[in-house]
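#onboarding

Welcome to the new folks! Below is a worked example of what a typical request in this channel looks like: someone posts a single protein sequence, and someone else replies with the predicted structure as tokens. Don't worry about understanding the tokens yet, we'll cover that in week two.

Example request:
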Amino acid sequence: MTKVKNSTKSPLSEEANHSQQTSISKEEYKKELARLHGELIKLQYWIKEKGLRVVLLFEGRDGAGKGGAIKRLIAPLNPRGANVVALGTPSDREKTQWYFQRYVSHLPAAGEITIFDRSWYNRAGVERVMDFCTDQQYKEFLRSCPEFERMIVRSGTILLKYWFSVSDEEQEKRFQARAKDPMKRWKLSPIDLLSRDKWVEYSKAKDEMFFYTDIKEAPWHVVESNNKKIARLNCISHILSCIPYKNIIPKPIKLTPRRPMEEYERPPFESQNIVPDFRLFKHRRCSDS
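Example response:
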């Protein structure tokens, strides 16, 4: 496969990237996140009103902070119009389909936002590094992916691709924290553990993926994520900057007085299964084994 130099650049200049903050106070973070949440609500109203179709694609190394960013992104949104897609291992049937087929069914309709927590780029990342696909399948992906994404964009869908970049040292720090914390241990899959020894392999795979798929119609946007809080604010701000919108949130609704209540007597509590006060459950825990 012949490589052709790709000159696509992010809207942010190199100078802007180098001048990014490295720390932020909790108060400043909360204040800015609240402001961005207000803007996201305006954006969703606009997307629904104009019938836009938006795809936000989140990729990056394990532990890079994609999940946390997605969680903050969708927090203020109406779930009826914003859907997170996080597909698991393909079934035996799906393995026989056209590679992009199971992703196509999740693309948005008019007025919807679809957020992919990992996507078709699994083939260029984990499948490539872990030998879950053949060389032929991988090369075909690199040929097909740009055309697939051009088709999505030509259809009128807005496609934004984000790569969360984290250093080797910071990733290991987060892995160690997950290993120690029972509330986060589920985030460490067997594949995640294997990836710890394949940092260079993943780096090479990412570089080659960027070379072929960082196209003019759908460029990659790199989010430096050694600081999770700043990464979240940067990503959400960038999304808002990429989709022009206006504030069309409905004006405050003036509620009319309620009509008089009809006579009604609630059934006695004793006749229903009322959930007890949470403090009664404190000593009824699953025993550790």
